[in-house]
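re: ur question from yesterday

yeah so i grabbed the chain u mentioned. its 274 aa long if i counted rite. heres the sequnce exactly as i have it in my notes:
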Amino acid sequence: MVGDMGSDNRSRRGPVGARRCRGGWASDLTPTGDTVWEGQVQGRASDLEHLVRNFTAPPLLFVRDERDGCRLRSDSFAACTTPHDVLEDAEQVLSILSGVLRLTRDSHEGLRVGAVFRRRDDESRDVVLHVQDTLKVRAELGEPTVTITDSDGIVRVAAPPRRPLEIARLGLADETVAKALRLLANATDWVGLYRLYEVMEEDIGGERKLVRRPWCPAARLKRFKQSANSPTVAGDTARHGTEPGDPPRDPMSLDEARAFVHELVEGWFGSKGV
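ran it thru and got these structure tokens back, copy pasting raw so excuse formatting
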């Protein structure tokens, strides 16, 4: 259940001593050379809990408290000199992580920046940029905890899965992976799915090399490409405005195409060792 609670009071009035600017409110506080930045993160509650449980050390660290919610601390923030620099950097990081969550948790709700904080030595924070947004509240189950009872009857909490962290680190280090994750976060129509496919095809070295991989059957790839290009199949969401040839005899549905591209993404990341 999703409820629209409206913009909170701070987004309408802005923080004390703040001025309106592009993207929200900015404080007149002047950052110092040793400023430590944080970005408030908004998204699905179970996704935020997942991030806090799994991303517990640099270069990406997520923390949470009752006052300011989930917050991102990124090593890349050290190079930022203004709140707007932090906002742009945080948006890039969260777009990558949205793709990670889509791949590993089938999460369809992206992550967003709610505010930029300047953290003090005593762990208190100043709001230096407040991004205007509509607060969404979603009732859902929290992050499941896996427990294991050993032979002595001692209950142990299983270690969190490492794959989301490994994929995120790869995305931060490899621009091709970062682009694929950004596209994956929003790949819901034919054009978005095809763009994601093209990134993987180029990275592998072309279609001929791609179909040699066991996770990319040539026949299914042909059906996907013909369906994505065909207005008869995809309507106005097709990649082409007119039929490039005869319509495919065995077209893919959009749901089947989504599942196929997801399998390609899994195989592609598997080929990279994650």
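noticed a couple things. The longest strand covers residues 112-119. also The chain is about 40% helix and 20% strand.
anyway ttyl
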